[in-house]
């Protein structure tokens, strides 16, 4: 009862507060949650996947426009096959559920590094939901911040080479905006708020370029235990801050 009252109080206060357009979430702590419960890693990953559906409903209700979910880093791809394979199946099933749930799905990451079936599921989700309106869900799979920047520069070079631009000419005009046009999230607002669960207080390369001016909220709960009240607290803390871009 007290929890419900507190949740309702937070919701009321946020009704007139500023809401972040774009929220990035580092879904951390699935394996530790499973270990604490005496279960297998894949049980933690599945519990974390189930929590995603709740987060998206909370975000849509709050008026958030974009949510980026970091599901699998490029470093995670080197995990033992016995753990990686079940995790990829869970991710594939989750992406399919997002499509069935009516969400607009956009893959974010080095798709070429992923197994063919995982890459196929991500591409199919983007193709099937690209025309939908409402909340945009970036699914970061095989994602690394440094890799994204390298891919953006590579894409920029290829684009200008196709136009016949010389390296000397490109060096004269290349700037931040040119690189940003080739990021995985091009055309989207940068994250206003980044949430990381499990008590870790670092970004680990998450949206390295885009988070230059983001606000951060670190939550002690493992991702499967993340509650609506934890999400509302993150929004409340964001609303209280005076953002100073570039300072």
From TrEMBL:
Mg(2+) binds at residues 28, 215. One of its GO terms (molecular function) is transferase activity. Binds 2 magnesium ions per subunit. Substrate binds at residues 29-33, 45, 73-75, 79, 196, 202-204. Keywords: Magnesium, Metal-binding, Transferase. It comes from the Bacteria. Its cofactor is Mg(2+). Signal peptide: none annotated. Its EC number is 2.5.1.-. The active site is at residues 28, 76. Pfam families: Prenyltransf (PF01255). CDD domains: Cis_IPPS. InterPro entries: UPP_synth-like, UPP_synth-like_CS, UPP_synth-like_sf. Belongs to the UPP synthase family. Z-FPP synthase subfamily. Catalyzes the condensation of isopentenyl diphosphate (IPP) with allylic pyrophosphates generating different type of terpenoids. Homodimer. This is Isoprenyl transferase.
């Amino acid at each position: 009862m007290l929890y419900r009252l507190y949740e309702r109080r937070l919701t009321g206060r946020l009704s007139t507060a500023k809401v972040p357009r774009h929220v990035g979430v580092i879904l951390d702590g699935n394996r530790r949650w499973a270990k604490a419960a005496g279960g297998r890693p894949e049980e933690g990953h599945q519990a974390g996947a189930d929590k995603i559906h709740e987060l998206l409903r909370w975000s849509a209700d709050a008026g958030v426009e974009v949510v980026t979910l970091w599901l699998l880093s490029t470093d995670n791809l080197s995990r033992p096959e016995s753990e990686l394979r079940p995790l990829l199946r869970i991710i594939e099933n989750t992406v399919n559920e997002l499509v069935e749930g009516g969400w607009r799905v956009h893959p974010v990451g080095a798709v070429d590094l992923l197994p063919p079936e995982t890459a196929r599921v991500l591409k199919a989700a983007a193709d099937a939901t690209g025309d939908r309106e409402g909340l945009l869900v970036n699914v970061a799979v095989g994602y690394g911040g440094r890799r994204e920047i390298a891919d953006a520069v590579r894409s920029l070079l290829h684009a200008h080479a196709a136009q016949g631009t010389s390296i000397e000419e490109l060096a004269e005009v290349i700037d931040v905006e040119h690189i940003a046009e080739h990021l995985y999230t091009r055309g989207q607002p940068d994250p206003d708020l980044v949430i990381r669960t499990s008590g870790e207080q670092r970004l680990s390369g998450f949206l390295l370029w885009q988070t230059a001016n983001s606000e951060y909220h670190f939550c002690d709960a493992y991702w499967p235990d993340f509650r609506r009240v934890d999400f509302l607290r993150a929004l409340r803390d964001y609303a209280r801050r005076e953002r100073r871009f570039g300072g």
